[in-house]
Amino acid sequence: MSAVTDTAPRRDAAADAARTGRRVEEVLDRLAADGDRRACEAAEELVRVLMDFYGAGLARILALLDGDGGGAPAAPGGSPLDRLLGDELAGGLLALHGLHPEDVRTRIGRALESAGSPLEAAGFDEPTGTLRLRSSAVGCGCPGSTQAALRAVEDALACFAPEVTSVETEPRASGPAEPPLLQITARPPDGAPGPGGTGERP
Q1: What percentage of the chain carries pLDDT values higher than 70?
Q2: By the 8 A CB rule, do 88 and 161 touch?
Protein backbone atom coordinates (compact mmCIF):
# COMPACT_ATOMS: atom_id res chain seq x y z
CA MET A 1 0.00 0.00 0.00
CA SER A 2 2.77 2.39 0.94
CA ALA A 3 4.68 1.50 -2.22
CA VAL A 4 1.73 2.56 -4.33
CA THR A 5 1.43 5.81 -2.37
CA ASP A 6 5.14 6.55 -2.79
CA THR A 7 5.25 5.93 -6.55
CA ALA A 8 2.01 7.68 -7.45
CA PRO A 9 3.44 11.21 -7.18
CA ARG A 10 6.38 10.13 -9.34
CA ARG A 11 4.04 8.84 -12.07
CA ASP A 12 2.02 12.06 -11.90
CA ALA A 13 5.19 14.16 -12.20
CA ALA A 14 6.38 12.07 -15.15
CA ALA A 15 3.01 12.48 -16.84
CA ASP A 16 3.10 16.24 -16.26
CA ALA A 17 6.58 16.40 -17.78
CA ALA A 18 5.45 14.45 -20.82
CA ARG A 19 2.37 16.63 -21.27
CA THR A 20 4.47 19.75 -20.93
CA GLY A 21 6.92 18.52 -23.56
CA ARG A 22 4.10 17.78 -25.97
CA ARG A 23 2.55 21.19 -25.28
CA VAL A 24 5.82 22.94 -26.09
CA GLU A 25 6.09 21.01 -29.37
CA GLU A 26 2.52 21.94 -30.27
CA VAL A 27 3.15 25.64 -29.68
CA LEU A 28 6.34 25.58 -31.75
CA ASP A 29 4.58 23.71 -34.57
CA ARG A 30 1.76 26.25 -34.56
CA LEU A 31 4.23 29.12 -34.80
CA ALA A 32 5.99 27.39 -37.69
CA ALA A 33 2.66 26.83 -39.45
CA ASP A 34 1.81 30.53 -39.16
CA GLY A 35 4.78 31.27 -41.39
CA ASP A 36 6.41 33.80 -39.03
CA ARG A 37 9.95 32.49 -39.19
CA ARG A 38 11.42 35.11 -36.86
CA ALA A 39 8.80 34.43 -34.19
CA CYS A 40 9.41 30.69 -34.48
CA GLU A 41 13.18 31.11 -34.16
CA ALA A 42 12.74 33.38 -31.15
CA ALA A 43 10.44 30.84 -29.48
CA GLU A 44 12.89 28.00 -30.09
CA GLU A 45 15.73 30.09 -28.67
CA LEU A 46 13.63 30.90 -25.61
CA VAL A 47 12.97 27.19 -25.03
CA ARG A 48 16.70 26.42 -25.33
CA VAL A 49 17.64 29.21 -22.90
CA LEU A 50 15.09 28.04 -20.34
CA MET A 51 16.20 24.43 -20.71
CA ASP A 52 19.82 25.46 -20.17
CA PHE A 53 18.84 27.54 -17.15
CA TYR A 54 16.83 24.82 -15.44
CA GLY A 55 19.38 22.18 -16.40
CA ALA A 56 22.12 24.22 -14.71
CA GLY A 57 19.86 24.68 -11.68
CA LEU A 58 19.18 20.95 -11.36
CA ALA A 59 22.87 20.15 -11.74
CA ARG A 60 23.71 22.70 -9.05
CA ILE A 61 21.09 21.25 -6.69
CA LEU A 62 22.49 17.74 -7.15
CA ALA A 63 26.03 18.97 -6.52
CA LEU A 64 24.99 20.81 -3.36
CA LEU A 65 23.07 17.83 -2.00
CA ASP A 66 26.09 15.64 -2.74
CA GLY A 67 28.28 18.03 -0.74
CA ASP A 68 30.29 19.04 -3.80
CA GLY A 69 28.79 22.44 -4.49
CA GLY A 70 32.08 24.29 -4.26
CA GLY A 71 30.78 26.66 -1.62
CA ALA A 72 31.11 26.83 2.13
CA PRO A 73 30.28 23.59 3.96
CA ALA A 74 26.93 23.34 5.65
CA ALA A 75 26.79 24.32 9.30
CA PRO A 76 27.14 21.42 11.77
CA GLY A 77 23.74 19.87 12.33
CA GLY A 78 22.26 21.77 9.39
CA SER A 79 19.89 20.10 6.97
CA PRO A 80 20.72 19.53 3.28
CA LEU A 81 18.23 22.29 2.55
CA ASP A 82 20.61 24.80 4.14
CA ARG A 83 23.01 24.30 1.23
CA LEU A 84 20.30 25.12 -1.29
CA LEU A 85 18.95 28.18 0.49
CA GLY A 86 22.35 29.91 0.58
CA ASP A 87 23.22 29.26 -3.06
CA GLU A 88 22.40 31.95 -5.61
CA LEU A 89 21.29 29.60 -8.39
CA ALA A 90 19.44 27.00 -6.30
CA GLY A 91 18.02 29.55 -3.88
CA GLY A 92 17.06 31.78 -6.78
CA LEU A 93 15.06 29.01 -8.43
CA LEU A 94 13.23 28.34 -5.18
CA ALA A 95 12.44 32.04 -4.73
CA LEU A 96 11.38 32.42 -8.37
CA HIS A 97 8.72 29.76 -7.95
CA GLY A 98 7.62 30.79 -4.47
CA LEU A 99 9.18 27.70 -2.88
CA HIS A 100 11.83 29.41 -0.75
CA PRO A 101 10.87 28.87 2.92
CA GLU A 102 12.45 32.11 4.16
CA ASP A 103 10.65 35.45 4.17
CA VAL A 104 11.70 38.25 1.86
CA ARG A 105 13.63 40.22 4.49
CA THR A 106 15.73 37.18 5.38
CA ARG A 107 16.45 36.62 1.71
CA ILE A 108 17.42 40.26 1.28
CA GLY A 109 19.97 39.70 4.04
CA ARG A 110 21.26 36.64 2.18
CA ALA A 111 21.63 38.70 -0.99
CA LEU A 112 23.64 41.42 0.77
CA GLU A 113 25.86 38.81 2.41
CA SER A 114 26.33 36.95 -0.87
CA ALA A 115 27.38 40.16 -2.65
CA GLY A 116 29.91 40.97 0.10
CA SER A 117 28.65 44.51 -0.04
CA PRO A 118 29.30 47.43 2.35
CA LEU A 119 25.60 48.24 1.98
CA GLU A 120 22.93 47.35 4.51
CA ALA A 121 19.14 47.34 4.36
CA ALA A 122 17.55 50.52 5.69
CA GLY A 123 13.97 49.47 4.93
CA PHE A 124 11.83 47.54 2.47
CA ASP A 125 8.41 48.64 1.23
CA GLU A 126 6.60 45.47 0.17
CA PRO A 127 3.69 47.12 -1.72
CA THR A 128 6.07 48.97 -4.07
CA GLY A 129 8.98 46.49 -3.93
CA THR A 130 11.38 49.33 -3.09
CA LEU A 131 14.45 48.52 -1.01
CA ARG A 132 16.41 51.31 0.68
CA LEU A 133 20.11 50.73 1.26
CA ARG A 134 22.78 52.67 3.09
CA SER A 135 26.50 52.22 3.52
CA SER A 136 27.50 50.11 6.51
CA ALA A 137 31.23 50.86 6.39
CA VAL A 138 33.45 53.89 6.57
CA GLY A 139 35.30 54.37 3.33
CA CYS A 140 36.16 56.79 0.61
CA GLY A 141 32.62 56.70 -0.76
CA CYS A 142 33.98 56.90 -4.30
CA PRO A 143 31.15 56.91 -6.87
CA GLY A 144 32.79 54.12 -8.86
CA SER A 145 33.09 51.74 -5.91
CA THR A 146 29.56 52.55 -4.74
CA GLN A 147 28.09 51.83 -8.18
CA ALA A 148 30.00 48.54 -8.43
CA ALA A 149 28.73 47.48 -5.01
CA LEU A 150 25.20 48.43 -5.98
CA ARG A 151 25.36 46.39 -9.19
CA ALA A 152 26.57 43.34 -7.26
CA VAL A 153 23.73 43.75 -4.77
CA GLU A 154 21.13 44.10 -7.54
CA ASP A 155 22.39 40.90 -9.19
CA ALA A 156 22.17 39.01 -5.88
CA LEU A 157 18.73 40.43 -5.16
CA ALA A 158 17.49 39.21 -8.53
CA CYS A 159 18.38 35.68 -7.37
CA PHE A 160 17.40 35.70 -3.71
CA ALA A 161 14.62 38.30 -3.56
CA PRO A 162 12.89 38.90 -6.91
CA GLU A 163 10.21 40.79 -4.95
CA VAL A 164 12.62 43.74 -4.89
CA THR A 165 11.81 45.76 -8.00
CA SER A 166 13.78 48.95 -7.26
CA VAL A 167 16.69 49.96 -5.04
CA GLU A 168 17.35 53.36 -3.49
CA THR A 169 20.45 54.41 -1.60
CA GLU A 170 20.69 56.92 1.19
CA PRO A 171 23.73 58.52 2.88
CA ARG A 172 25.37 56.66 5.72
CA ALA A 173 24.28 57.88 9.13
CA SER A 174 26.93 60.20 10.56
CA GLY A 175 28.85 58.73 13.47
CA PRO A 176 30.89 60.39 16.22
CA ALA A 177 33.38 63.01 15.14
CA GLU A 178 36.84 61.66 14.44
CA PRO A 179 39.72 62.92 16.63
CA PRO A 180 41.96 65.52 14.99
CA LEU A 181 45.13 64.27 13.35
CA LEU A 182 48.38 65.07 15.17
CA GLN A 183 51.30 66.38 13.13
CA ILE A 184 54.38 64.33 13.94
CA THR A 185 57.76 65.83 13.03
CA ALA A 186 61.26 64.49 13.41
CA ARG A 187 63.10 65.66 16.57
CA PRO A 188 66.34 67.55 15.95
CA PRO A 189 69.45 65.56 16.93
CA ASP A 190 71.03 66.34 20.33
CA GLY A 191 73.00 69.59 20.20
CA ALA A 192 71.32 70.80 17.01
CA PRO A 193 69.75 74.27 17.11
CA GLY A 194 66.10 74.17 18.17
CA PRO A 195 63.34 76.30 16.73
CA GLY A 196 64.62 79.34 18.59
CA GLY A 197 68.16 78.96 17.27
CA THR A 198 69.49 77.49 20.57
CA GLY A 199 70.79 74.07 21.29
CA GLU A 200 67.85 73.34 23.54
CA ARG A 201 65.29 70.85 22.43
CA PRO A 202 61.71 72.13 22.12
Answers
A1: 66
A2: no
